[in-house]
Amino acid sequence: MIAGIHRQMDAVDMLKDALCYSTSNAMNWFPMVDDKQLANIKSSIVVKEITR
Hints:
By secondary structure, the protein is mainly alpha-helical. Helices cover about 60% and strands about 0% of the residues.
C-alpha cells in the first residue's frame, strides 16, 4: 500500500494489489509471490462499494 501511495495509485487499485499479494502468500507454504499467480488472482478480484 505504501508503494501505491507513493505512486499515487487509485485506492481500489491499491486494495486489489494488496489483496493479490496477501492471497498469493496465503496460497503458498512460505511467503512467495509468482507473477502468473498474481495475474490469475487479480483478474478474479471484484471490489464493490458498500453504501448505506
